[in-house]
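Protocol step 6 of 9: fold each sequence in the batch and record its structure tokens directly after the sequence line. For illustration, a two-sequence batch is reproduced in full.

Sequence one:
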Amino acid sequence: MPPEGLLFGRNPLAAELYRSVADLSLVCPHGHVDPWLLADPEATLGDPAEALVSGDHYVFRMLHSRGTPLEQLGVRPAASSSTAPDPRTVWQCFAEGFPLFAGTPTGLWLALELSNVFGIESPLNGSTAQQVYDELAEKLNRPEYSPRALFDRFRIEVLCTTDSILDELAAHEALQATGWAGRVRPTLRADPIMRADDGDWAANVERLAALSDTDVRDYGSLVNALSARLAAFKRLGATGIDVSVTIPRAEFLPVAEADSIVHRGLRGLASPEDGARLAARLVLQFAELSRDEGLVMQLHAGSLRNHHAAGFDRFGPDIGADIPVRTEWTRNLEELLNAYGEDPGFTLVAYTLDESTLTRELAPLAGYYPALVLGAPWWFLDSPAGIRRFLDAAASICGLANTAGFVDDTRAFPSIPARHEVWRRVCCDWLAELVASGQLDEEAAHRLARALAVDFSLDSFRLR
């Protein structure tokens, strides 16, 4: 168990506030848990390496940065039929590198996860690696450590997965068919159809057309296919979509120009300029479609995906090689916010990796437009220090009510409660400091502690 004062300063109110929210349900509106873990009643988390290392780029990214090849950490090449590495060997490599995580949020999450979820008391290092592996392996085979059992134990109120617009949604169909009581909802991820200059775009559109039973031949029919997919996600419980772009630009295009780009894209002739222009049009289009379907639109921007070309060619995406870039929001979102920023049927949750934009652009925008709320500190900014900076920026410029609460953004299912615990502890300590400095009274601090833990997420993502 963590020490009572973990992440707290000297103000005893921090612990009191935390005790008031520690046992509240977990609301998980954005993450990357495989829905089959919960759709299949017989599913397990696998062996210790699979459960904690090989599927979590937060973990293997650090070890790779110190020279460990990804293959040694269980990351499989995209087009390889080679035998998977021995999980004990992967775990030994991870345990020997565990000191590298000292002072990082990932190290904190892993320590809480091992202690609180799995009851591991031994420190993890090279000499204890196999002992810890054996203890974990034995527990992971027990029914009480199945994904569904942990879902209940974690007190997850609702969990939203992130699913490609090209996904058949079989896992979510299966979840509905089993009648299991856990609330697991899909979220449409639009990435495969955003860039007409992508080499796979024509094939992706063909797949989209088949799934939506629509003949996509121009921009209008592309929109019809997108609308059909949003409706399909919504029928399975989706309350939101997720659009990921490097530049968060939204811009109208004349129909003839949009048609021309679609035609070139379907023939594999779209230029990078075509890709950027159609992506900007689709951001605006998704805002309209989300409003029409009553879905929340999430916009993740400022990440240059797959920066390491050789790594992407060998392993595919999501290997931790996505790097933040400078991002501009004010002018890029002007057209979208003028169209929908005051529309009561529209919500845009915006996430940035360019921390400077929080105070310069996003928080001021959220402080004016009712439709825009700030997404939680994301990815490289989800450390205790990053959370504090986010709270300072939001509270001072747009107010906490214009934030969307917490998202765990995890691919590692057993890490979910640790991530929520860190968020709640930091928020409670930050609120206690405001009370100590006379900026907040205790009653308001208790109310905001609950809102930051649960209520803002439920409301912003329409999950009540």
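Sequence two, same batch, same settings:
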Amino acid sequence: MSARRVKVPGPPRRYRRLPWRAAEFVALDFETTGLDFARDTIVSFGVVPVREGRVVLADAVHQLVDPHVPPSPRSQTIHELRPQDLAGSPSLSESRDVLARALARRIVLTWFADVELHFLSAIFGSPRTAWRRRMIDVRDLAIVADGAPPSARVQAGYGLSWTAERLGIPVASPHDAFDDALVTAQAFLVLTGRLPTHPNPTTADLLWLGGGRRRLERRFKPAV
């Protein structure tokens, strides 16, 4: 994947101290040729904005991307995008600016952030740490809302469709980038009202609960 450096403006720092509804968010999902980070690339992305506590479908983006490597057989069984389905779609270099505009000045919502973090870094040539500072892993919010232990992050469960069903969110097309981004956005809105320790969270609270606290846990891990 090309790593040409493209600057994507981050969200204003003032967002962090404001009630979360005053910030702008965008749910992001990638479908990819596979999960070999050394060679694979994206084949589609879905972006769904959240503004003033509401999903804004009018500004959503869904785009196929013609990759430089064919989707692996396993990935095709998951997202059902074959090489012939992708042929003629915009290339990654053509899609990069579209994605950059959709993410600019917004906090990024993902489900299981590690995948999106890698591909964002590869697409824009920027460090993963820079993206992590502006990202909320909605899966982590689901774990917090359940009062589950940190080990739940590595246990089975907490898949997007499974969690959506529990939250009463319809799932039309699992592993479709647009539908997964939409479900992630809806899950975010439901979960912000179910956080037992933060009934009225600020944006900074959500950034911390949605993954930022893992950095703190590692830094301040007690000696055993």
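Proceed to step 7 once all outputs are recorded. Observation for sequence two: The CA atoms of residues 142 and 191 lie 6 Å apart.
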